[in-house]
Amino acid sequence: MAKELKNLTKRSENYSKWYNELVVKADLAEQADVRGCMTIKPYGYSIWEKIQRELDDKFKETGLQNAYFPLLIPKSFFGKEAEHVEGFAKECAVVTHYRLKVDEESKQIVVDPAARLEEEYIIRPTSETIIWNTYRNWIHSYRDLPILCNQWCNVMRWEMRTRLFLRTSEFLWQEGHTAHATREEAEARAKQMLKVYADFVEGFMAVPVVQGVKSETERFAGALDTYTIEAMMQDGKALQSGTSHFLGQNFGKAFDVQFVDKDNKMQYAWATSFGVSTRLMGALIMAHSDDNGLVLPPRLAPLQTVIVPIYKTADDLEAIRRRVEPLTAALKGMGFSVKFDDDDKRRPGFKFADYELKGVPVRIVIGARDLENNTAEVMRRDTLEKETVSLDGLENYVKNLLDDMQQNIFRKAVAYRDAHIYECHDYEEFKKRIAGGGFFLCPWDGTPETEARIKEETQATIRCIPLNVDQSNPGTDMVSGKPARHRVIIARAY
């Protein structure tokens, strides 16, 4: 095993340190020299590209179209929706000047005090305000609706405590913003996008999620309802992995977006917004990976199969190359990414360790003796199991193996998640157990006071009111003793 793998902290020793080390050692990302920001390295960005590509296709199937809106938002726009701006005020970066100059005395670059902006600009923490100010010019009649826009972009939220992918001051995401003629249509869109997210995260990332509705305290600033998917990481903590918001007419009224309906009456447009971010990269890492490095579901792995030749002479290498060319072509023809690694600057042992670290799903090793026997050694990354397989029809074996790995990684994550969901009706028991992680299904009286007490005393939060749980008889709140309004998922979270 290569040195860098030996130095990877075990999850059982320090989960947080393991995560931080793995992100860097697997060449996914690193801390940038800009406070709170990260540099996403090519290997990490290639995973994000696959996430982006898959989601983008799914979005367009629902009618969404991509657009792009300004990075800078006039400060006055934020003053039009008070609840929204209050939710982001502490995280906003503000642009106050538009010019630099060389100071004559110090010869240093300084901000030109004469170049102060008449109105400050906010670097977008989210784009509802600028987009709805734009929609005002697009929407006049019910015939102009719905408007279904999405943008892939960066946003800035000035975070005090950061962690690569999970929480950074600048991050990449997509934000969808739709405008509708009716409440029913807007609510249906918000719920539809939640399902799109859930299907993607489970089907491609192999991460099981709980779909639910946020409490009033936890919902998006300016929303009437926030729908969420919550995923459980291997330490039992929750990670909010995607949200979809029903915004009502709040932004329509704030930005005076009115239209003439079918009855020739003026109405305010109904709104939704929804988004996922590079935080999904964190979910992917923490849900599946092990002490040897990344475990990537094949559908999202940048490199799905690597072939490592073992040889002594150039003739040996050439013989192996000729034999695997049809295999490589066949796998590529099936839509799989494959690499024949004949790099002579790295020894096979280093390559094995490196590909394990980076989570390449299938590794095929072929030496001179394997050629004689018409076989190859195939290792699957999820279980580290090795098998000697005939070269004849190996492409079909690999295809079936990749399919099985995708399903197996998901099954394993589901089993872990389900084994760590607990029903709890006793607050003292809850306080003792919550530090060990897990999702706790508990009765809640629906009051912010009870919610605040739980958070203050346990550092756990109500993650959601789950959609797939029977709410007909929620029972008695374990904190207040009052009749419960909902059964909720409570957990510590990232």
What secondary-structure arrangement, pairings included, does this model have?
Elements: H1 3-6, H2 15-25, E1 29-31, E2 38-40, H3 42-61, E3 65-66, E4 72-74, H4 75-78, H5 82-88, E5 94-97, E6 100-102, E7 109-111, E8 116-123, H6 128-138, E9 147-156, E10 170-180, H7 183-203, E11 209-213, E12 225-232, E13 238-248, H8 250-254, E14 258-260, E15 266-268, E16 270-277, H9 279-288, E17 305-310, H10 314-333, E18 338-340, H11 348-357, E19 362-367, H12 368-373, E20 375-380, E21 386-390, H13 394-419, E22 421-423, H14 427-433, E23 439-444, H15 448-458, E24 461-466, E25 486-491
Helix pairs in contact: 3-7, 10-13
Structure description:
The chain is an alpha+beta fold. It folds into 3 domains: 28-288, BirA Bifunctional Protein, domain 2 (2-Layer Sandwich), CATH 3.30.930.10; 298-417, Anticodon-binding domain (Rossmann fold, 3-Layer(aba) Sandwich); 421-491, Translation Initiation Factor IF3, CATH 3.30.110.30. The protein has helices spanning 3-6, 15-25, 42-61, 75-78, 82-88, 128-138, 183-203, 250-254, 279-288, 314-333, 348-357, 368-373, 394-419, 427-433, 448-458; strands spanning 29-31, 38-40, 65-66, 72-74, 94-97, 100-102, 109-111, 116-123, 147-156, 170-180, 209-213, 225-232, 238-248, 258-260, 266-268, 270-277, 305-310, 338-340, 362-367, 375-380, 386-390, 421-423, 439-444, 461-466, 486-491. The chain has an 11-stranded mixed sheet, sandwiched between helices. Strand 1 (29-31) and strand 2 (38-40) form a beta hairpin. Helix 3 packs across helix 7 (183-203).
